[in-house]
Amino acid sequence: MATYQKRGKTWQYSISRTKQGLPRLTKGGFSTKSDAQAEAMDIESKLKKGFIVDPIKQEISEYFKDWMELYKKNAIDEMTYKGYEQTLKYLKTYMPNVLISEITASSYQRALNKFAETHAKASTKGFHTRVRASIQPLIEEGRLQKDFTTRAVVKGNGNDKAEQDKFVNFDEYKQLVDYFRNRLNPNYSSPTMLFIISITGMRASEAFGLVWDDINFDNNVIKCRRTWNYRNKVGGFKKPKTDAGIRDIVIDDESMELLKYFREQQKKLFESLGIKPIHDFVCYHPYRKIITLSALQNTLEHALKKLKISTPLTVHGLRHTHASVLLYHGVDIMTVSKRLGHASVAITQQTYIHIIKELENKDKDKIIELLMEL
Question: What is the rounded distance in angstroms from the CA atom of residue 316 to the CA atom of residue 176?
Answer without folding.
Answer: 14
